[in-house]
Write a structure and sequence with these properties.
The protein is an all-alpha fold. Helix content is 29%, strand content 0%. The chain is built from two helices and no strands. The termini are far apart. The model has no long low-confidence stretch (mean pLDDT 81).
Length: 55
């Protein structure tokens, strides 16, 4: 049921659609390159692997 003759009324009744932004990838050469847990900082798992490889 429409209350007005506005062409925008149908658009205002639609549910909004939100897209999730894709998370950025870790820089190449860092310990987290290819890690699925990358959130902008080195995670504990990758940091431990990096320390074991150096030691």
């Amino acid at each position: 049921m429409n209350f007005t003759n506005s062409p925008y009324e149908r658009m205002m009744k639609e549910l909004p659609y939100y897209e999730k932004p894709t998370p950025p990838k870790a820089p190449e050469g860092s310990p987290c390159a290819g890690c699925p847990y990358w959130r902008g900082i080195v995670c504990v798992i990758c940091f431990r692997k990096h320390l074991n490889n150096e030691g």
